[in-house]
Design a protein that fits this description.
The protein is α+β, with helices and mostly antiparallel strands. The chain has a domain of about 60 residues: Nuclear Transport Factor 2, Chain: A. The chain contains 2 helices and 4 strands. Strand 1 and strand 2 form a beta hairpin.
């Protein structure tokens, strides 16, 4: 099979839950984001899911967010853990 067809067979990827944590991120960074779009992300399976998301903000720099999503039966909203600011588009997403 071609690589593009394999991608379709792999399943649908979940989009990281950004908007539930936007206000917390803005408070932590001390700024309001007019843009708050995921550029790319990595995920880590734990007792739930950790997302490490590169978010495009204003200007040339991005931020990396650490967001935890609990298992569905826990009925918990996504929680924001930390942020790394002033990342470039080329910076690799690493665990933090």
């Amino acid at each position: 099979l071609e690589a593009s067809k394999l991608k379709l067979l792999d399943g649908i990827e979940e989009t990281p839950p950004l908007h539930p944590v936007k206000v917390e991120v803005e408070e932590k960074c001390g700024k309001n984001f007019t843009k708050f779009d995921a550029v790319c992300y990595k995920k880590q399976v734990v007792a739930g899911m950790n997302y490490f998301v590169k978010v495009r903000g204003q200007g040339a720099y991005s931020s990396c967010l650490a967001i935890y999503v609990a298992l569905p039966h826990e009925n918990q909203p996504p929680s924001f853990h930390s942020v790394q600011q002033d990342k470039t588009q080329e910076d690799e997403i690493l665990y933090f």
